[in-house]
Amino acid sequence: MILNGKKKIWSEYQKDIPEDHYFYVRSCIRQNFFPASEKLFLEVVRDRLSLDFFETEHHTTCGGIAYHSDTIPQETVMTIVARQFALMTEAGYKNYVASCITSFGLYTEILDTWHHFPELESKIRDYLWKTTKREFQKPEYLAHASDVVYKLRNKIADQAKYKLVNKENGEPLKVVEHIGCHYSKMFPSKGVGGAEYPYVLTGMIEAWGGEIVDYPERRHCCGFGFRQYLVQANRGYSLSNTHKKFESMAPFKPDMIITNCPGCPYFLDRWQYVIKEMEGTTYGQDGNGIPVFTYEEVAGLVLGYDPWYLGLQMHQTPVEPLLDKIGIRYNKEEKYLL
Amino acid sequence: MNKEVLVIGGGPAGIECANSLISLGYKVFIVEKCSEPGGHLRKWDRLFPYGVSASDTLDKLLQKSGKAIFFYDTEVQTINQVDEKFVITLSDDTQLHVSSIVVATGFTLFPAAKKEEYGYGIYNGVITNADLEDGFKTHKKELFKANRVGFVHCVGSRDEKVCNRHCSKVCCVTAVKQACEYKDLNPDAEVYCFYMDLRMFGRGYEDLYLKAQNKYGIRFIRGRVSEVAEDVNGCLVVKAEDTLTSRPLKVTLDLLVLMSGMSKNDDNDKIADMLGIKTEEDGFLSLPEPTLNNCQTVTDGVFLAGSVTGPKTLPETLNEARAAALSVHKYLSR
After folding, report:
1. Does the distance separating the beta carbons of B231 and A8 come in below 8 Å?
2. Which mean pLDDT values do the consecutive 10-residue runs of chain B (334 residues) have?
3. Which CATH number fits the domain B4-106+265-332, given the four candidates 3.30.470.10, 3.20.20.70, 3.50.50.60, 3.40.190.10?
């Protein structure tokens, strides 16, 4: 692998990400799967870095899951999104940051569609007014929350208590990065590093001491793929996707996986348990699975947050072997007490 | 009007056009931005379909161009038309006064790194047709030790994603030629060609394709490569689709050759602006009468030759260069 070749591509897909003053919108499902990720994001940017991130309880689903499952029309989902933009406008913000990858992809797609079909935007403005009496400005900047953490990665590194290194030998941990499909596969220029060799998570891992693993099925879907899982009859297909990824990454002996999508960490984490039950196969070292994290959780770990405060006890694949490898202190007795 | 003509571009089209003009009694200036003549031909080893030596071919072309005045490492800076004459300023401040101009600036090889999913410049085993040709020419033995080799046709051509809808015309037969040559150097190698459809339009091409299958056992797979990655051993994992069996396939290779196509010359817009001519949607220079007169532009006294107007084989390029010379002669003899 020629690192300079990747660096050249990365240099061509950089975004001018604002650091401050964002309207933050949560994901529908992340708080259930990885309960501390969004809370931690807000804690880090607000309390540790003193930045202005606003959220409102009036925010709803963006409709992305329904849209990608073909259960609601495009104009409906656009009107829902128009309402979110109206909330941002009413709150006095111009930068919009989404916690969810599918929301980010959906917003990007809608803004691009309106750019090419302004008559559709007018129609949606009309729908929004008729239904809610609201008006909106389009965001001046649309970010995914991982873009913001990427932007702040060195500031986080400055405050880090731990590094992503093996405490026994000082070697960087081998980290698999997995980007949500809706981050940059639809619009490569909207993702840091583009679609083929995304840099958004790689940049974080490098800044926090780890080393990225480039394996053949790196680009492959995590296995969620919406209808691959949402339609019950397709779930074998969902599992086979995940299986393919683990078979491909296993020879590289990764220590951990980091993701920036709501669905990916869930499926990469949970399906490992299913594969173990079905085939008896585990992909980590010493018979363990490979722990899977959100980027907020990894940020929390390097900043020294208690693993149970980060909700890591909710993971199917145990994280303790990795915590031990890094040297992160935790109390086994308190795992399920919080 | 004087009998002085400027040829922009010192590749095969420019040289052959100059040769013809010299034989008709004209004084010819050739402006070449590189330090040597020959263009892409200089970098090639052998030519399809018969395996003729590229350097011998170039030498033969240059033998007849002795009277042409070459300006190397030089580009045209400005062109002003005064009455029926052209006043040219070159990048070395030389001024030329000519009666006619032939643009023979050729093509730019598609930069394969733009097809990011193929990993050129990222994975060590991914090279281009030009790299392989250089390997043949300079006898890079290590390049011919690969036991599993793939050729990807249509890289940067017939591809809307990179804004090149056009067919590059010569890549199919070049891939077949290079695959056969590879087998000559490494008979044990397994060689695959991933193609969309094989455009074997020229004399001898179909025979070469047949030979590639019957004699060399090259496997032709109808389908595009979707992505390339490296496995833990540094081998290339290539994913493609076999559209004849309607199945995806994955193959592990040691070497992957990307058949970079002919794209518009990067300087075409600048040249078109200076000469008051246009480019087409594909970026190649425009011909107002492409059927009846494939050298004439909308500007009197300005003619085009070779692949500056689209992908062409070498014989087509040379014929067009001769036709451009005759067009100049007809124009200046009117």
Report:
1. no
2. 92 98 97 97 97 97 93 97 93 96 98 96 97 97 96 96 95 98 98 96 97 98 96 96 95 98 96 95 94 93 97 97 97 93
3. 3.50.50.60
Closest residue to B121, CB basis, from A2, A195, A216: A2
Range A15-145: architecture per CATH: Up-down Bundle (1.20)
Q: How far apart are CA B79 and CA B90, in angstroms?
A: 9
Phi-psi label, residue A63: left if phi above 0, alpha if psi -120 to 50, beta otherwise: left
Q: Do domains A15-145 and A161-331 have the same CATH topology?
A: no
Instruction: Judge: B230–A214 Cβ closer than 8 Å, yes or no.
Output: yes
Q: Which two tokens stand for residue A108?
A: 């990007």
Tell which of A11, A217, A246 to mutate to test the B interface (max B CBs under 10 Å).
Answer: A217
CA angle A253, A258, A263 (to 5 degrees): 120
Q: Which residue of chain B is at minimal alpha-carbon distance from A1?
A: B123
**B122/A251 touch (CB, cutoff 8 Å), yes or no:** no
* DSSP per position, B80-107: EEETTEEEEEETTS-EEEESEEEE---E
* Residue B113 tokens, joined: 């790194």
Please judge whether A217 and B229 are an interchain contact, meaning their C-beta atoms are less than 8 angstroms apart.
yes
Domain parsing of chain B, residue ranges: 4-106+265-332, 112-262
CA distance B143 to chain A (A): 17
Whose structure tokens read 């909710």?
A: A314
Q: How far is A1 from chain B (nearest CA, A)?
A: 5
CB atoms within 10 A of CB A308: 18
Structure tokens at A73: 């029309």
CATH topology for A161-331 is Rossmann fold (3.40.50)
pLDDT at A338: 67
pTM assigned to the model: 0.92
Q: Which of B117, B232, B237 faces A196 most closely, judged by CB atoms?
A: B117
CB pair distance less than 8 Å for A215 and B229? yes
Q: Is A180 left (phi over 0), alpha (psi -120 to 50) or beta?
A: beta
Nearest CA distance, B317 vs chain A (angstrom): 35
Residue A209's pLDDT is: 98
Q: What is the DSSP string of A237-283?
A: HHHHHHHHHHHHHGGG--SEEEE-SSHHHHHHHHHHHHHHHHH----
Tokens of B264: 């518009």
Fold entry, domain B112-262: FAD/NAD(P)-binding domain (3.50.50)
Indicate yes or no: CB of A197 within 8 angstroms of CB of B121: no
Question: How high is the pLDDT of residue A286?
Answer: 87
ipTM (interface predicted TM):
0.89
Q: Residue ranges per domain, chain A?
A: 15-145, 161-331
